[in-house]
Each structure stands twice: as C-alpha cells, then as structure tokens.
Backbone:
C-alpha cells in the first residue's frame, strides 16, 4: 500500500508519454496498414513487389532493432529524430507492416460478386471501395486490428530503451531510488499496462458490435 | 402567301429526314458483338461470336453448361475482357477508344460512360449485405447518376413497388428469401434506366417455388418495350414466351438462332436437337 | 551525408555479433521448449472441471498476453535475483509465448470433430488414451505451421533479453556501437543477421501452411 502511494505518481508521469506514443503510433500504423494493404492489391506488379518488400523487411527484423536503428543509426545519414519521433515512426512502420496484411486479407475475402455488382452499377472505383467493399471488409479487420493494437501497446514499452520517458522508463528510474520496492514497482507497472490493454480491447469490442449491424448473407 | 407551299414542302422534307433518322436509329443495333473471342489461359471458351441486339429486342441465350453464355454477358458488362473481336454499344466500341487520333484500350472514364447503358442481374443476386433494400437501390442513383437523395428515394420506392418489394424497403438482404433478393436486384439494375439489361440465369439459384415470382417480374418488365434484354436461362417455356429471338450457343459458337418457335420447335442442327431433348419432359414443348 | 557506411567496421561488428549467435539460438530454442510445455500446462489447466480454476487460468493468461514481455522480464529479474539472467530470459519468453501457444493448442483441439470423442467413448478408450491416441494425433499436425510462426516471433523478441543484461546479439551490437561510435554499422548488421535467419524460416512456415493448410 505504502509502496503504491510512493510509486504511483512517478509511474503516472510516464503514462502520458506511453499514451502519446501509443495513440500516435497506432494512427501511423493504421494509415500505413491501409496504404500498403491497398498497394499490395495493385494492378502493377512492381507496386505489389515494393509493398511486399516493405512488409517482409519490417516483419523480418525486430522492433527493438528498428527503434535503435531509427534513433542511433539514422543520424549517420544526417537525419536526427527526437526519441518521440523515432518511437512513433518505429512502432508505426512495424505494426503497419502487420496491419497491411490484415487489410489485404480482409479486402480479398469480400466476395468477388460484390465487386462485380458494384461495377455493373457503374460505381466509380472510389465509391466501389468506400461504400461497398470497405464496409464489408472493416468488420473482418476489427478483431485482428484489436489484437495488433494490444501488441502495439506492449511495444511502446520498448521506447524506454531509446531514452523516451514512458511508464517503463519511469519504473527503471524509480527502481534506483526505491530499491526496496522494486518487486511491487514492476508488478504495479504490469497492472497499469493490463488496464490500458483491457480498456483498448473493450473499445475495439464496441466498434465490432457497431460494425456488425445488419450483416451476414 | 406564295411561299407557303414551299415552306410546307420544306417542312415535310425535314420531317421525312427526321423519320428516316429515327428508323435508322431503330435499325441500328444497340449492342453488336463482332467476332468476339474469349480464352481463359489455354482454354478457348468463345471462338468468334457475331450477335446484334436491337433496341427493345428480347434475346434469350441458351446452351449447355460451360458453353460460354455467362462469359458473353460478363464481357458486355466489362467484367471480362475479350481476347479478340470487338463489342460495340450504341455504335461505339466498348473496349477501345480514340485518343489523339489513335485507337487505344479504353480507360475507366470511357468504360464508365458506356457501362451506364447496361445493367445486369446476377445468378446469385450480389446484393450489398450491409445496406438495406432501399439503400441497395438508391446507392447508384445517388453516387453514379448524382440524383438528389429525395428524388432517388422516390424513384426507388416506385421501382420497389413495381417488383412487389416496397414493404421490405427497410430490411437487410439477409432477411429476405431468394426470390425477394432477386426482385430487389432487378429493381436495383432497372432503376438506373439502362438501354440493355442482362440477366444471367436469374432463377437458377432459387428454390423451385420461388422461381415464378421472379419470372413474373421479368415478364412484366419485358412487356414494357423500349429496353433491350439479353437473358440467359434454362427455363425453356419462359424463353418461348418472352423472347423475340433465341440464340443457341455451343462449342464456343452460335449454332442456331431465330424466332422462338423456329428454334425450339424446329431445330435444324443435331446439337440443338440433342440439347432440347433434355428439356422435353415437363416443359410443355412438343 | 556526414559519415558514410564503412565496410571494415561492418565486418568487425559482424564478427563480434556472430560470436554470440549461439546465445540467441539457445535462448530461442529453450524459450520455445518452455513455451510449448507452458502452453500445454495452460491448456490442461483451462480445461479443469473446477470453474474457479478455469476462470483463474483464463485471467492469468489474459494478464500475460496483455502486458509487455519487456516488463515481464524486468519483473522476473528483480523478483528472482538468484536466477541467472539467461534462465530468466528463457522463463520469461516461455511463459509469455506459452500463453499464446495455448490458444493455438486450443484451436487445434477444437478443430477435432466432436464425433471423434464420441467414437473414442463408444470404443471404451480411457480418458488418457483418448487424448494420446485419438485427439492429439489429429490436433497437432494442423497447428504445426502456427507453432512455427510463434517460433519465429519468439526469435525476433530475443533482443529484449538485452534489457536484463543477457549478452546476446543486440547487446553486443549496442556495446560495439558505443565503443566505436559506429551505431550505423552495428545496428544495420544486427538487423541483417535477424533478417537472414528469420526470413528463410518464415518461408518454410509459409510452405508448411500452403502444404498442410492453415489452422488456429
Ligand atoms: N475466370 C475464369 N477462369 C477460367 N475459366 C473460366 C473462367 N470463367 C469461366 N471459365 C470457364 O469458361 C467456360 C464457360 O463458362 P461460362 O460460365 O461462360 O459457361 P456458361 O455457359 O455460363 O455455363 P453454365 O450454364 O454452367 O452457367 C467454362 O468451362 C468455365 O469453366
Ligand atoms: Mg453461366
């Protein structure tokens, strides 16, 4: 109890950074998921190949390496990113690669007849996608997106290792001050992540319920 | 008043010429397949189809399974690209266009413009499951024809009335029977006022007891006259009632065509005879 | 452009990193063995007859899956000061991915037709025999590709062990970088190492998926 009162304010100082990195990273990842997922369905083989290369590259290496690379190695090319920028960019690029697979497979699982009916009604390619395909693919994307979002949240803890002051970073520095309480400290940190993840997952569930209105068949 | 007869003459000449133009327009095919070929990989499905469809004409296409009937309709709907030959719609090539004095493959703009003259009803309805019946039908009116929502709604309700689905306007496709779904799909295509309607086996995915209601709707539409129809079906009795002309496709070619009585009752080719023999029983054909 | 890429430095980094490849491999393999066993334990526990046990197990698994591996490692590190950091790394990876593998096992088991249980019952197989002779032989082959996937994921997570002072590839790269101030080569080379090992493995898994179908 005493430990909690002592430690919580310090951890909560990192909460803002964690949430900031989480939200910005998620937005970037979502944007990339759609952009790259659609490029992977392009008519042009070269575009598909480049998009696939991006996905394979980011899925083939580790998030931590990507973050270190963006933060420590990129300056060698004259690009100095702040820790926040490197963190958001790394998370966005990494989870965007996974998300693009979600987008791609969800779009591909919309029955061919739906595309054809949209063409037969002469809907423009944009309207076809926005009003016919996406509304049917979106509910399929939500559950895997929800899982990815949790993974992304967990991934934010890695930004502590590129000097960004998130919750994990705060815990590491509290640990040196309150060595006696280091076990409850990390337990408390785990609980905080669990609570954020659970809230996130509840929000996604609600979106899933909303997306299901009047479907199937 | 001396000039009066001259004016009358000139008027008459103008009227004659206008009538001649109209006649020519009536005689000009709305759709024209010219030497159309289609192959999927190494397999040739259609090898040179010549077929004209005139405004208002109802043409029924029959033929064995796999003979390429669906492929024919899908090419006209731009869902497949011919491997050879050309399809003209309203006197204009569908898959090519002129740019800077040269014939080039059609772009999306060209396809969209020509496609606007054609509507299609699919075997499996292909209704949009996430939209109500009403929205399924208004969608293209609003987003393609750019008709204001209120007017689109009015036209939709009138069309749903016509196919007997007005009271189901707020339901989702999942809540409808197959026959009801197909009637909505017909309304959805019809409300766009196409010059040509394609029906690809509109009743073959339906339970037998639901076939009648859909055929009745199609018959009612056909009676209305001005729209050309290309209808693929295995319902021979229905074909006979509705068709101005029946086209029999087999082996990638048009084997026979003519008025329903000719084709159905006095087939010339052995292949058509064999094909029809399978429908003799219970089809009311003698 | 500042300092451009230097091959001699990259070579030096590669040699140092290559020296600890066995550490990373060992952590991966042992971590996966623990994960496979822990996953089985989770799976058995969550099928317990007691609703209380089932609920507690589900909650614990959810907790493990919804919290960062990095923080779990740090927690184990401070909670068990007697254990070697390598052992903590292996246990951390194993518990974390055990919770994921349990989901995979469950999917495999649920995919076995109900009729198989009934047939086993009708033939009077014991409960244990039903599992070992009837259910598992059918449940496991379809989930092999999924397990392969998690093996690769686990491999890519081993750089986190650097945070608890395990001398694996990432730690060596960071060390090299801070000694020579050549982070570019150090982190590029370690990335290449990971890619060269994980990408071929993922091709194998994809081939397995295509060959034996997707499950789980
Ligand atoms: N996209 C495609 N790829 C490969 N082959 C195709 C494709 N579409 C159609 N085919 C083949 O082309 C042939 C003609 O098909 P089509 O669907 O046009 O026949 P159909 O006359 O409509 O037959 P049915 O009466 O069974 O509907 C068939 O052998 C079919 O397998
Ligand atoms: Mg067909």
Residues:
């Amino acid at each position: 109890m005493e430990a909690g009162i002592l430690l919580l304010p310090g951890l909560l100082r990192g909460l803002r950074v964690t949430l900031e990195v989480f939200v910005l990273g998620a937005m970037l990842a979502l944007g990339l998921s759609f952009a790259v997922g659609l490029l992977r369905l392009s008519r042009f083989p070269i575009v598909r190949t480049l998009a696939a290369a991006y996905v394979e590259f980011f899925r083939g290496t580790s998030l931590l390496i990507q973050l270190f690379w963006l933060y420590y190695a990129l300056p060698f090319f004259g690009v100095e990113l702040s820790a926040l920028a490197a963190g958001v960019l790394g998370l966005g690029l990494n989870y965007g690669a996974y998300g693009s697979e979600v987008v791609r497979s969800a779009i591909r699982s919309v029955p061919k007849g739906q595309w054809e009916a949209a063409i037969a009604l002469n809907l423009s390619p944009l309207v076809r996608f926005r009003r016919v395909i996406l509304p049917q693919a979106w509910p399929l994307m939500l559950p895997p997106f929800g899982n990815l979002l949790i993974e992304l949240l967990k991934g934010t803890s890695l930004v502590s290792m590129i000097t960004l002051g998130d919750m994990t970073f705060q815990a590491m520095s509290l640990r040196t001050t309150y060595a006696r309480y280091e076990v409850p400290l990390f337990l408390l940190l785990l609980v905080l992540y669990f609570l954020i993840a659970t809230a996130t997952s509840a929000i996604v569930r609600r979106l899933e319920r909303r997306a299901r209105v009047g479907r199937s068949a | 008043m001396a000039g009066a007869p001259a004016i009358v003459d000139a008027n008459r000449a103008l009227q004659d010429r206008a009538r001649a133009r109209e006649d020519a327009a009536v005689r000009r095919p709305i759709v024209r397949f010219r030497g159309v070929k289609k192959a999927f990989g190494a397999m040739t499905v259609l090898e040179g189809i010549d077929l004209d469809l005139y405004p208002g004409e109802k043409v029924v296409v029959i033929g064995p399974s796999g003979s390429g009937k669906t492929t024919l309709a899908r090419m006209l709907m731009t869902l497949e690209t011919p491997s050879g030959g050309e399809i003209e719609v309203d006197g204009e090539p569908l898959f090519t266009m002129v740019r800077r004095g040269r014939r080039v493959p059609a772009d999306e703009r060209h396809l969209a413009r020509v496609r606007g003259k054609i509507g299609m009803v699919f075997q499996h309805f292909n209704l949009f499951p996430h939209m109500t019946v009403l929205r399924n039908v208004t969608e293209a009116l609003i987003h393609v024809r750019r008709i204001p929502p209120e007017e689109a709604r009015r036209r939709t309700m009138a069309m749903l009335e016509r196919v007997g689905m007005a009271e189901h306007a707020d339901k989702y496709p999942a809540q409808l029977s197959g026959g009801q779904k197909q009637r909505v799909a017909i309304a959805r295509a019809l409300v766009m006022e196409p010059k040509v309607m394609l029906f690809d086996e509109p009743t073959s995915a339906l339970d037998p007891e639901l076939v009648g209601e859909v055929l009745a709707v199609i018959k009612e539409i056909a009676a209305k006259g001005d729209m050309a129809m290309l209808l693929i079906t295995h319902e021979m009795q229905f074909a006979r009632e509705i068709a101005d002309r029946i086209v029999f496709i087999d082996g990638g070619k048009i084997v026979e065509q003519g008025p329903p009585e000719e084709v159905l009752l006095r087939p010339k080719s052995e292949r058509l005879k064999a094909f029809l023999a399978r429908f003799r029983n219970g089809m009311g054909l003698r | 452009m500042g300092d451009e890429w230097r091959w001699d430095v990259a070579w030096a980094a590669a040699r140092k990193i290559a020296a600890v490849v066995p550490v990373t491999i060992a952590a991966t393999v042992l971590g996966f063995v623990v994960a496979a066993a822990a996953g089985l334990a989770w799976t058995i526990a969550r099928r317990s007859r007691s609703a209380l046990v089932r609920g507690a197990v589900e909650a614990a698994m959810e907790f493990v899956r919804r919290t960062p591996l990095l923080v779990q490692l740090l927690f184990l590190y401070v909670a068990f000061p007697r254990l070697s950091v390598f052992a903590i790394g292996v246990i951390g990876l194993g518990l974390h991915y055990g919770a994921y593998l349990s989901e995979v096992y469950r999917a495999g088991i649920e995919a076995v037709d109900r009729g198989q249980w009934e047939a086993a019952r009708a033939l009077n197989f014991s409960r244990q025999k039903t599992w070992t002779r009837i259910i598992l032989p059918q449940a496991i082959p379809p989930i092999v590709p999924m397990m392969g996937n998690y093996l690769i994921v686990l491999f890519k997570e081993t750089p986190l062990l650097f945070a608890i002072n395990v001398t694996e590839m990432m730690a060596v790269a960071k060390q090299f970088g801070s000694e020579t101030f050549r982070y570019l080569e150090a982190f590029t080379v370690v990335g290449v190492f990971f890619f060269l090992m994980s990408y071929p493995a993922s091709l194998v898994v994809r081939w397995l998926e295509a060959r034996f179908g997707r499950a789980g």
User: Anything to note?
Assistant: The pocket of adenosine-5'-triphosphate (ligand 1) is lined by residues B 40, 45, 63, 65-71 (CB under 6 Å). Residues 53 and 244 of chain B are 11 Å apart (CA to CA). Chains B and C do not touch (no CB pair under 8 Å).
